[in-house]
Known about the structure:
disordered N terminus; 11 helices; Alpha-Beta Plaits; 13 strands; single chain; 18% strand; six-stranded mixed β-sheet; five-stranded parallel β-sheet; Rossmann fold; alpha/beta
Amino acid sequence: xxxxxxxxxxxxxxxxxxxxxxxxxxxxxxxxxxxxxxxxxxxxxxxxxxxxxxxxxxxxxxxxxxxxxxxxxxxxxxxxxxxxxxxxxxxxxxxxxxxxxxxxxxxxxxxxxxxxxxxxxxxxxxxxxxxxxxxxxxxxxxxxxxxxxxxxxxxxxxxxxxxxxxxxxxxxxxxxxxxxxxxxxxxxxxxxxxxxxxxxxxxxxxxxxxxxxxxxxxxxxxxxxxxxxxxxxxxxxxxxxxxxxxxxxxxxxxxxxxxxxxxxxxxxxxxxxxxxxxxxxxxxxxxxxxxxxxxxxxxxxxxxxxxxxxxxxxxxxxxxxxxxxxxxxxxxxxxxxxxxxxxxxxxxxx
Length: 350
């Protein structure tokens, strides 16, 4: 009698044995399905389980390993030749990228963002046969399922025009950072900005020119930020930057500046805003007319957690209110919430 082919990774045996090191209740959206995997909740148990070399993939939860992740990766590499996949929360992605090395070397082979389903983890490992997969793939109809999943994950978090993070990613990143603040102090500032008179440029010179402006602005702000800061396009000509200091990265050299109130505001943000507006002033905007150089300006608003807001909604609302104040008081400036007089005017301010 003919047997029907299984339709789900959970209905068929995986061709790669997977060991998960971490807390399944945090990692997986449906922890009950972990029967398909071997799980160790602490590092030493995971190292002991690797004796014998039967695993093709080791998935390591990063959360909770601050300060010792590098050593844990080295210990795992010394114990096994299996493919090593880091499981990271969205706010840990910059760290995961930093630890992702060449296959078989000091870093990890890959990373996945969690929470995710057990099925997604299995599907990502199916067909890999323990070998690290390339990180950049062409979008081809014939691409294997794991490749298509990776491409879809990228498209789900990135803005397709600028390559920056999208609104959903930016909000979720900020939400998870705030959620994490109960376990460790978090300093985070949101910069919201948009392009002054963008609709005029878009309507006058066409949408293709408008798109080029958006791409260039996105590139400029990305270059002005630190590697781990999150830069996103929220939609239209509105952009967001999340400037944050991870306690695990240390705060070497940080000298906080105080506002007129008692709250502390990271001075890196104003430095970023200054570099950004100066870069705009130096750029050639000849595509928006003969006076294009130096004509384009932006207005922005800054708000900090936990000084100005306690929730992600309140944080973005406060930054947006500061942005509106920047527009109201003449544009071409960055306004810090809570102290309207403290603005960072653009280089073309009159």
